[in-house]
Amino acid sequence: MIIDISRPLSNQTPTWPGDTPFDFELTWTKEASGSVNVGKLEMSTHTGTHIDAPFHFDTEGKKIHELDLALYCGKAKVIHLANTEIITAHELRKFDLSGTERLLIRTDSWEDSMRFPEKISYFHPDAAAYMGELGIKLIGVDVPSVDFIKSRELPAHHSFLEHSISILEGLNLSETEQGDYELIALPLPIVGGDGSPVRAILRTS
User: Fold this and answer.
1) pTM
2) Nearest Cα to 190, choosing from 56, 64, 40?
3) How does strand 179-184 pair with strand 201-203?
């Protein structure tokens, strides 16, 4: 079974304040061209469900086209961690994460998906250190950022990079049960890119 955990993209999709709004329009119509409908997209690379390349927050970091695609497909575990403002190593120790390579956390803290949130669950840097000890290679969240919304220093982003953990943000996990799955969330091959939208899915056997 396939479970789509991507957020739909439309002209109503909320984006980071001040970032490029999502816009889709037909530049050719079948009626006008006599042949086909053709659309045009304008969007930020951090719209909806997306991955961050290290270059997003580190000018020396890898760019999208340099990332290992194997990070974004394979066995994954989904856990629920609702009503938790700061996700710490202490909170994560409540779960059996042994053998987990890709961890997706459902926080339910993005309450209205049609409005950009003012407050979300976010990570303490010690969470990244703990996940690094466990061998986790990717963290996925159902919010726009792994950091406090108004943070400029981005301590969680940098801590995840320090521990070689890739970042997947903006998932839709509202209907997803805890458990083990196969994740596929491949980025576009954007040369020089700082981020990329993905179509993220979970598969069950």
Assistant:
1) 0.96
2) 64
3) antiparallel
What's the longest Cα–Cα distance across the chain?
Answer: 62
pLDDT tens-digit profile of 121-163?
A: 999 999 999 999 999 999 999 999 999 999 999 999 999 999 9
* pLDDT at residue number 121: 98
List the helix and strand counts (H, then E) for the chain.
4, 13
Q: Which residues form the catalytic set?
A: 56
Which tokens in the block code for residue 194? 């700082």
Q: What share of the chain is helix, strand, coil (3-state, %, to 5)?
A: 20, 25, 55
Q: Report helix, strand or coil for 161.
A: helix
Token couple for 96: 């059996």
Separation between Cα atoms, residue 97 and residue 136, nearest integer Å: 9
